[in-house]
Design a protein that fits this description.
748 residues; elongated; single chain; alpha+beta
Length: 748
């Protein structure tokens, strides 16, 4: 592989105009496709294999034309102090508002509070339910404005009016902190390279890659039903890995220049060595993201595949456009350690030569060398300290509570949250998460009796406030029953009630032949959480297993990949602990902009496992590959660890800081899901890069010594030789660079 990538790098360096033209054309094509694409339609949130989804599908069959997936809104009214909603003036205002809402072109139905028993017992709060023909993301802006205007006009009469539901659902915004994250990345690159030109190359290529990826997602959003969160996550991951992959190749290019190589040869060697690490690091990320498909949640699968596509683009750009841009930059990209205009750096080799001539002491080793030397002298102490620290950070994860966000998790400044609180005040906390029980009596001899029996059975369960009368369909073979719990939607008590109804349904089916199903947003959230929990272990085994095999091929070792996987588990558990502490317990919530604490998003653990594993293997490959390269070339195990840090620690540190900055930039998002993922990935990168890879990895390798690189002879013969270290490039040098390299590349 190293030889092929070496030729590819040299080809891209020489044919830079052609390579740049291809990528600019792809960016233009994707941009035109995105600009001309129809707006994204509904994002179907189906959960195959769950009872809630089965009930939802049954409703669409048995109750046609009721817009089961249409947007909903609850316009909540509260009377001024000392008044009631049943007073003539307040009633007239509400009825006027209902009439205005019913005139909307996309409105399917509006329920009058006074005819639908939607006034609280004390008479101070009432609500009107609005159902639309289309989903919240498909609603016209004029329809949303009409809803807001109707609420505002009702407020002018003195009533408190708030609007809940998904009708006012908005596209999430990332905020200015995303730009700040990119700015921090730029500063780190300038400090790392000491040159604006060298620093600009990773940023430019990362932005082009993300531009192609996100534009492609936008162009396909309507056809593939991709949500707005998909493009945000693809942007988040694509920016981080795009900058990092380019950073490693540019850094290796400068190191090759410092060895005295010609620029074209240096570009080829950078792509052949660091590029090989980029390919395998990218593969681990892609495996982790595509592996999300095993969960069998279409939305999560689409998010993973879209983000994986952006990562693949980042890898291809790093391997081709970076050497092309290095050809354009010429002498403006200086060798590693060379004096630059910006920071006034001086060549370390020149410092050593001058020191030798003058008899002065040699310049002291860099920080990476000194740190690695310290770790290999005291590996056990460093290992224990790192494991204990990560274990302490992981303690809050034991209290992890999972759920999906609803209006109760919105900031208190939003009308959705205020409507949620008013409904809880007037009708109880369970009113915001009603359960919809669907009774399928098609196989029953007495459907009406079955409906009554189910209703009576539910009334006798603990935790039930109210049970609405059964509402049968036109065929009389199916009925819906609305159940109001006495606890809020995200509580354990509501989850227990859902299971109790389902358990009771088994006995009823045995007696009457009627099947009882529980659905609704609350039941759907419960089923999603359980499905994700059940899928976590198989997903972990699949992703870690595939990546473990891949790393065996890369490092030709058993213990190094095993150590990498165990270190990942430590870092991801510590990161989950930090997420629980901030978003569930409320620690530092003000600093992170978390206005409302609550359960951690159900998708968070499995999504973090996938993404963090891929990113963790990035640093493992980049750092340990340099160690193995030194070991293969004859250095002793401990000295190889020090050499790996000497050449790689500075760049890996810069890459980790950049990735943390990019992820942290998304903490400013208005979408709680994006905010939580941004924080979780940023803290996970911190734990994995600075604790696991920078401390635990060298400590374990120092303790293992030569055993770290042990591989059974039969397995060594069976594995393909991918030559990530670039050993085969020495043979390529002996052959020399010929004018027919382009044809050789095609044949390869």
């Amino acid at each position: 592989m190293a030889t092929f990538l070496y030729k590819l790098g040299r080809l891209a360096f020489r044919r830079r105009h052609f390579v740049a033209l291809i990528w600019v054309a792809l960016l233009t094509l994707a941009g035109v496709g995105a600009a001309g694409a129809p707006p994204a339609g509904t994002t179907s949130f189906s959960i195959p294999g769950t009872e809630a989804q089965s009930a939802f599908d049954l409703l669409e069959q048995r109750f046609p034309g009721q817009s089961a997936d249409g947007a909903t809104a609850r316009v909540v009214f509260k009377a001024p102090s000392g008044e009631k909603m049943t007073d003539a003036g307040n009633r007239a205002t509400v009825e006027k508002t209902v009439d205005e809402l019913a005139d909307g072109s996309e409105v399917a139905s509006v329920a009058d509070p006074y005819t639908g028993n939607a006034v609280s017992e004390d008479g101070t709060i009432a609500y009107a339910s609005v159902r639309y023909d289309v989903s919240g993301m498909e609603l016209e802006e004029s329809t949303k404005h009409a809803l807001e205007d109707a609420a505002e006009q009702a407020r002018e009469s003195g009533l408190t009016v708030e609007v809940g539901g998904d009708a006012l659902q908005a596209v999430p915004e990332t905020g200015a902190t995303e730009i700040i994250g990119i700015a921090v990345a730029a500063v780190v690159l300038v400090i790392t390279f000491g040159s604006l030109v060298a620093a600009g190359l990773p940023l430019l290529t990362a932005l082009i890659g993300v531009g192609i990826g996100v534009s492609s997602i936008t162009a396909l959003a309507s056809a593939l039903e991709l949500g707005s969160t998909t493009s945000i996550l693809a942007m988040m991951i694509g920016l981080a890995v795009g900058i990092d992959y380019a950073l490693f190749i540019v850094s290796r290019y400068r190191a090759e220049l410092a060895e005295g190589r010609e620029r074209e040869d240096a570009a080829g060697r950078a792509v052949g060595t660091a590029g090989s690490a980029v390919v395998f690091a990218g593969l681990t990320v892609v495996i982790a993201l595509v592996g999300l498909a095993v969960v069998n949640i279409p939305m999560l699968t689409k998010m993973g595949v879209a983000a994986a596509g952006t990562v693949a683009i980042a890898v291809l750009i790093a391997l081709t456009m970076i050497p092309a841009l290095l050809g354009y930059a010429g002498r403006r990209v200086k060798p590693a350690g060379a004096k630059g205009r910006l920071l006034g750096r001086r060549s370390k080799a020149a410092d050593k030569n001058e020191a030798a001539k003058s008899g002065e002491p040699q310049p002291k080793a860099n920080l990476g060398t000194r740190w690695a030397s310290f770790v290999v002298r005291r590996p056990l102490a460093v290992l224990l300290l790192g494991v204990i620290g990560l274990g302490a950070a992981a303690i809050p994860a034991a209290s992890l509570e999972l759920g999906l966000p609803d209006d109760g998790s919105q900031p208190t400044s939003t009308t959705q949250r205020r409507a949620y609180d008013l409904l809880s005040e007037g009708f109880g906390p369970g009113f915001n998460g009603p359960l919809l029980v669907v009774v399928d009596a098609k196989g029953s001899d007495a459907p009406k009796d079955a409906f009554t029996q189910v209703s009576d059975e539910i009334k006798g369960l603990d935790g039930v406030v109210a049970v609405a009368p059964p509402a049968p369909n036109k065929g009389g073979d199916t009925a819906t029953i609305s159940v109001i719990p006495d606890s809020k939607p995200s509580s354990v008590q509501t989850e227990d009630l859902v299971h109790a109804i389902r358990d009771a349904g088994g006995d009823i089916e045995a007696d009457t032949g009627a099947q009882t199903l529980v659905t609704g947003s609350t039941a759907m959230n419960i089923d999603v959480s359980e499905k994700l929990n059940d899928a976590l272990l198989p997903y972990l085994v699949l992703v870690v297993g595939l990546a473990f095999l891949l790393l065996i091929v890369v490092f030709r070792s058993i213990l190094v990949p095993l150590k990498a996987a165990l270190g990942f588990l430590l870092s991801v558990m510590a990161a989950l602990g930090a997420v629980v502490a901030v978003f569930q317990w409320g620690w530092l919530s003000g600093l992170m902009g978390v206005e409302e604490t609550g359960p951690v998003m159900s998708m968070m653990p499995i999504f973090m496992v996938g993404v963090v594993f891929g990113l963790a293997m990035d640093y493992e490959v980049f750092l340990v590959t340099r160690m193995r390269e030194a070991y293969v070339h004859g250095e002793k195990p401990n000295q190889a660890v020090v050499t790996g840090f000497k050449h790689g620690a500075r760049v890996v540190t810069a890459a980790a800081v950049i990735m943390m900055a990019v992820f942290a930039g998304f903490i400013g998002s208005s979408e709680s899901m994006v905010k939580m993922i941004g924080f979780g990935l940023a803290i996970a990168v911190f734990f994995d890069a600075f604790v696991v890879r920078m401390a635990l990895v060298p400590a374990v390798l120092a303790l293992l010594g030569k055993k770290a690189w042990w591989l059974p002879k039969w397995l060594d013969r069976a594995l393909p030789n991918v030559d990530v270290e670039g050993e085969g490039l020495r043979t390529a040098d002996e052959r020399g660079a010929g004018p027919d390299e382009d044809r050789e590349l095609v044949r390869t």
